[in-house]
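Homework-ish question, so no full write-ups if that breaks the rules, but can someone show me the predicted structure for this set?
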Amino acid sequence: MSVKVEVGAGGIPHNQILIYGLVGSLVLIYLTYLNTITNTQYFSFFGGLAAVAALIWGTDTIKHLCSYGLGTGVPSAGMIALGSGVVAAIFGATTGIFAPIVTIIVAAIIGAVAGLMANHVVRMDIPVMIVSLIELAIVGAMTVLGLTAMACGTFEFLGMITGTVEFLGFTVQTYETSVIGGSIVAVIFMLGAIAIQHSFNACLGPGEKQDRTLMLAAECGFLSMITVAIISFAFIGFLPALVALLISIIGWIYTYVKYIELSKRDAYAWLDAKPILEPKGGA
Amino acid sequence: MEEIVFGIGITALAGALATVAGAAEDTESDIGSQGDPNSQVQLAPQMGYIHRIFNKAVAGEPPAYGLWVALGAGLAWAFMAMQINPILAIVLGSALAVFVQGVYATTAYLGRTASLAKFGQPVYIDILKSMTTVTMAHAFVAIFTTVAMCHLMIGALGHPFPLPLLGLVWGIALGAAGSATGNPFYGKERQYQEQKFGAGVPISASGNIVRYAEAGQRNSLDNGFFSAKLGGPASGICFGLIVFFELWRTVVFEELSIWGPIIVGIVVILVFAIIDRYIEVWARKNFGPYTAPEEAST
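A: Not a homework solution, just the prediction itself:
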């Protein structure tokens, strides 16, 4: 039985973030469906925003889970989240318009199985383990589905496995140049796995503050969006990809500057080219 | 026969690229105190040892390099899909991946240090400015060479995996090689030069890392010099040999039988296990346990 160590008490309650994250990412992923309705690709960037919402929620979940003394387990939590999530997201994508909802249900089941294994087979006995792994699996699945939808403009499986290639002036459809066929899903997996664990891993310590950690989570999300937007030039039109890139860059700059301000607020001192300040009485 | 000679040439080139990648990777991670040395750099201020050492804990090295290389490969793949020349595509992809690496490094340092405010550890902005750029330069070398190596495997040896997936696999292998081979040189030697030789590291010495240099105060660039001398080349040889033997056994023995490369792989592992065991026993006999220093008799 592990003992809970409360880090960074206060701030927004976890359940509130959970609801915002879940509903927010679901709604934002469904907004990419406007692509299919209006027959354009300009709404792809909503997938990335869904991933940002999911990552903020996931960061708070990791903080919750890792307050049970899992110092080096923080990166592993990100890996298991995206590992469970990618299976759920690809399975969910095969169900057409119901993809986001099916993804959430499948991810919850995978997360529950992983949680039960961790608590009762590996015997980690952490009270919030099962709930946290369910949440993390859903977060991972929504991140994969969101970023994939951003890259290829749709969350439907057929769009993920068909790419186009120019051949002798003709546009030919191939599997090799698709998001799944080209293994861009592997890049998205790693982007999500590092982004989800980085914020808490970077901010942990006695002076951890929730607003700073969550701002970093948003920053990681937008940074991942920038790279996916660049990759999406290979799959969707030039202008839709440019819109996605601009939105990601603006979001990233805003959150990065905010994060530096918050770090400045929380730091002991903010020095430039100054020597070590030895504490009173020496070490 | 000609095909095998060509294959061996590509194998040697891939091994050379991997050697450069390993050396750059270890130097990069040591300048950032990532992986093995990180716990002591993180602990030092809590024990009252305020320091000017870069602390960028993004994750363990294998996952972090899994991301940088997979991202570099993914971006390069996307640029190639847009009909951009492969060399240019790999350079652009690696440069963008390095940008992501640099951003992660700065946020990690700021976050970790700001959370240590209670212990009086200030944020030194000059560390961020001077050391992030150096780690980014080393990371670029590591990412570019690894992605180029993966592209060679696909283009010249006909590896069936797409570039991003191969990048992920070899990125994790690169991080693991650097973390296992190079980091002990820095983490277990360089940080503990204040302890007497053979004294071990008792709990009371935890966090008592070397903070002052020959002249002035030590920063992570000094650790970069040290890593470039010992840990980096060692990691380079490690990763280079991994890549070389991995490709060599397939290129040469696949012709004989489908089981050829597998049997050769097992033999290579056994040979290395025997060599490692021999070196370990030899080193234990010659360097440890600690004995009183012998004085000259006359």
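Now go work out the reasoning yourself. Hint: The mean pLDDT of chain B is 90.
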